[in-house]
Amino acid sequence: MDRMAMPPEEMSGGGVTIRLGEYVEPQAPTHVPILSYKIDIAGRAVGEVRLRLGDSDDLKRYFGQIGYEVYPAFRGRGHVTAACRLALNVMRELGYEEVWITCNPENFASRRVCEKIGGAHVDTVDIPVGHVMHEHGILQKCRYRVVL
Ligand SMILES: CC(C)(COP(=O)(O)OP(=O)(O)OC[C@H]1O[C@@H](n2cnc3c(N)ncnc32)[C@H](O)[C@@H]1OP(=O)(O)O)[C@@H](O)C(=O)NCCC(=O)NCCS
Fold this sequence. Notes:
Blueprint: E1 10-13, E2 16-24, E3 34-41, E4 44-52, H1 57-63, E5 66-70, H2 79-93, E6 98-103, H3 108-116, E7 120-126, H4 132-135, E8 140-147
Antiparallel strand pairs: 1-2, 2-3, 3-4, 4-5, 6-8, 7-8
């Protein structure tokens, strides 16, 4: 797998553009590099999609390799679904053959996004006691796998 490919600065499709905002270097030995893309509709930032680079068990099991958010006023219009499809294209360009996305079980909108972009619900895992997520009150994650 070629992980040295340069990420695209922007990509458009499905009515949205994702535009590379920042590359966040790992801040601790356990952190991973993050590519943060703004979701843009006609020049207006409506949300973000973040690519967490790596394929550690911690990423694939708990954090997920793609995170996303749409600002409240712009939700329910399919923007994040379109942006995530573009994010999957970026991951493919970076050499990934599969992507794991995780959601809190009660986050039905996020789970639906995973389904709409072709994710299969593989399992729901307990967050181990002592894990940073557990310390933040997150007890379970649903894991979705998207084959690229
Ligand atoms: C999760 C989030 C990104 C979804 O954004 P959105 O703009 O609603 O997403 P989309 O419009 O692309 O798709 C949402 C889908 O979920 C569905 N949905 C929304 N609320 C739902 C609910 N309570 N139960 C079931 N489905 C729901 C919508 O109907 C839509 O599916 P459809 O197209 O089949 O009708 C947004 O709620 C958000 O930013 N939340 C805060 C951050 C977050 O939770 N990020 C995900 C972390 S894993």
